[in-house]
Amino acid sequence: MPTELQGAPPTEAELRAFVGPGSGYYLRRWATSRHGGLNWTALCLSGLWLLYRKMYRVALIIVVAVVLESVLEELVFVNWLKRTEVPGAVERAVPVAVSCICCAFGNRWYLSRVTRAIAVSRMAMDGDEEHLARLARQGGTNMWAPVGILLLFTVAALATVFAMDAFRGAGL
Known about the structure:
Elements: H1 3-6, H2 12-19, H3 23-32, H4 40-44, H5 46-52, H6 56-80, H7 88-123, H8 128-138, H9 144-169
Helix pairs in contact: 2-3, 2-7, 2-8, 5-9, 6-7, 7-8
């Protein structure tokens, strides 16, 4: 592999191969703004958009942060301040904040992921066609991840409702 390609910025062909559907949108955003600008899809569908674009690590970090923040809410408001529940405004602020963060940083996170994947693929490059095929396999989108998560949350919510009803009926 030519050494001058290793440190070079990603080519348009590499970006298009990795991004797959919607590559035109991302190429325009990354060309007009150093950080990629705002991503309105990430604002409306934060976690689902991250999964769709195969940014599993970022999605996991956000889920862990939200869970930890929820535990902290309970500790502060219920245990320490002796309130009966967490104020609704606080509970509503967290998803809004997550959505705004994903909107503001989503394109930047995605560009970082794309650039890293292209650099790794270049190190193992066997030829242009194999390199672009590898990028297309690694990148693109995954419609099943957000659908699977939605189904999982739906089943979990229903199971929780049924369990709560069963406990109430049993007098627990």
